[in-house]
Amino acid sequence: MKKQISSLDLHFLVKELKMLEGSRVDSIHQRENNILFQFYKQNIGKKMLNILVGEGMFLTEEKEDYREPGNFSMVLRKHLSASKLESIRQINSERIAELAFSSKSGGKNLYLEFFGKGNAVLCDEHGMIVNALQHHEFKDRSIMPKIKYSHPEMKHNFLSLNPDILKELFGHSKIDSLVKCLAIEIGLGGAYSEEICLLSGVDKNISPNIIEERQIKRIYSAITKLVNSKIDAKVISNNGEIIAVCPFSMELYRDYEAKNFDSFSEALEFFYSFFRPKIKSEHEKKIEKLRNRIQEQSAAIESLSKEAQELREKGEFIYHKYSLVKEILEEVNKASSKLPWKEIKERLKGHKIIKEVNEKERKVVVEV
């Protein structure tokens, strides 16, 4: 099950997030790979964008505990606080979102990468990297300060395909099946590639090299249908287990349970909430600490009560045998004043009541 949003997911999500354009950045928070932007827009009010770097993003009304600011959030605050979000867009059909900001000090672009391990890269108006959440040295690019930002690019953009491009792509493909070709070479991912095969009626296992022109037209029609679908967001589950989130109804999940949402952003928030550990607030942490202390004290009380009961029973038993115990103690004490303990031990071997003599600690064990 995928937890990263796909290129097509991002295409629909960005459409919804366009409503943030023109907002002012009020605050920025970060904890590890989780970045939260709080925006304010006139006539709309406060909006919070929760970014799970490398996974997805969504609007939220819940603000978790970000008491300790992350290092990258300090960089973002320095450059983006009180700035205006001019635009949010997807880079071609890549799994990259660009958030463009403007302020008196100049423009800044924040690139959010949702592939691989993910990253968030802040650049100046000339495309030079100011800083990044993760610094990397790749074979074909570097994510380091003072270097021009570049990103991997798919050869084919599914947002601007046509039948002729598809024909050329399939004819030169070295991948053995249509579904894999759509997923890898066009970047649609597994689920949407399966969906296109279902909608077009073309066998998903057919070799791309032998696909006929009439089939290419049906595949192109299916891709166009998906790209232009109206948002009808759903979270899909199977026997109570969440397995997918999608921006519209899909034939692929026709026989599964579906929970409907008013927006794709809401569906994504619901989806990710099942896979991310809930971060406790300071108030919740204090309550949990007190509960643990109460449990420890209750356990200690129970242990002490049990021990007290055992000692009470022993005391009562000794009380009933007091005369016998007193007599033995007096005899042993009397003997120890005249004889060494080693000799006492020898003389008491086989005694009916005294079963053991510890000469080092000067103790005797009796059985009554």
What's the topology here?
Blueprint: H1 7-17, E1 24-31, E2 34-41, E3 45-52, E4 56-60, H2 71-80, E5 84-90, E6 96-102, E7 108-113, E8 119-124, E9 129-132, E10 136-137, E11 142-143, H3 163-172, H4 178-184, H5 189-200, H6 213-227, E12 234-238, E13 241-246, E14 257-260, H7 264-273, H8 282-320, H9 322-336, H10 341-347, E15 354-358, E16 363-366
Antiparallel strand pairs: 1-2, 2-3, 3-4, 5-6, 6-7, 7-8, 8-9, 10-11, 12-13, 12-14, 15-16
Helix pairs in contact: 4-5, 5-6
Quick rundown:
The protein is an alpha+beta fold and 368 residues long. The protein is 37% helix and 24% strand. The chain contains 10 helices and 16 strands.
Would you write up a description of this structure?
The chain is α+β, with helices and mostly antiparallel strands and 368 residues long. The chain contains ten helices and 16 strands. It is 37% helix and 24% strand. The chain folds into four domains: 7-143, ibrinogen binding protein from staphylococcus aureus domain (ibrinogen binding protein from staphylococcus aureus fold, Roll), CATH 2.30.310; 158-273, Orthogonal Bundle (Helicase, Ruva Protein, domain 3), CATH 1.10.8; 282-319; 321-368. Helix 5 (189-200) packs across helix 6 (213-227). The protein has helices at residues 7-17, 71-80, 163-172, 178-184, 189-200, 213-227, 264-273, 282-320, 322-336, 341-347, and strands at 24-31, 34-41, 45-52, 56-60, 84-90, 96-102, 108-113, 119-124, 129-132, 136-137, 142-143, 234-238, 241-246, 257-260, 354-358, 363-366. The model has no long low-confidence stretch (mean pLDDT 89). The strands form five sheets. Strands 5-6-7-8-9 form a five-stranded antiparallel beta sheet, covered by helices on one side.
